[in-house]
Please model this.
Amino acid sequence: MSAVCRIGVITFPGTLDDVDAARAVRRAGAQPVPLWHADDDLHGVDAVVVPGGFSYGDYLRAGAIAAHQPVLRAVLDAARRGTLVLGICNGFQILCEAGLLPGALVRNAGLHFVCRDQRLRVENPATAWTGRYAPGADIVVPLKSIEGRYVADASTLSELEGDGRVVFRYLDGNPNGAMHDIAGIASADGRVLGLMPHPEHAIDPLTGPSTDGLDLFHSAVDTVLGSVRG
Amino acid sequence: MPRVVVDVVPKPEILDPQGQAIVRALPRLGLHGVRDVRQGKHFELDVEDDVDAETLHRIAGELLANPVIEDWTVRRL
Model:
């Protein structure tokens, strides 16, 4: 295996943030690999980003159609083998619809599209995607969604809380009514992460409110290259 | 060709702000007496004769509804 970390970025019809995601990957020193919704394999990438946007026009439910495309089946297989997966916004919705993460994302409690620079607390810096953050770090990244309210049943919530799988929590007021102020969660092994806010839009002071998002991508590169070195 | 109807509604424990907005709008039209509204989706499927009940429930439960947040019913017309 090469010493370059290769991170796939999936594009569905209606995906918007694949270009920014690829740019964030490159900025973190990894090589972005474009993946297409019809691909049935992941071209050997070390990690996958499912970016934001409105895949398939949000028809039926946000993420519902994308969750059944060939590339998502390949993502599910790869995740079972330990490949790192990051779902951002619509990507988080897709991972929940596909059953890779528990719970669901539904219409914001206030029924408005929320677009703002959002403060978050990093609740768990021990996942594959958050190793660069200090415990309890306070970060600012853009949030832009109308189906961003995280919901899950009581037993799922208590499992997520008890196992440290609530990775990001909203600060300064809950923007969408998400249960437990949840902005992002991880799989039990910490290698699959989904969040509603957009770290890929906060990597450059010229275009974002901060550069706080970049450490997410650096963390993944650390995880991949660290495991290669063994 | 038989027609099948699938109705999908948010589970009772899931907050339905769209339904609440409808409840609040009704009195403004002079229409009173509605205590609660749950907004869902209604699907009409034209299916082949040999599609069995189990397949219909898979269609409803694996795609048309998300069982994490929604309940559904399947009816043959």
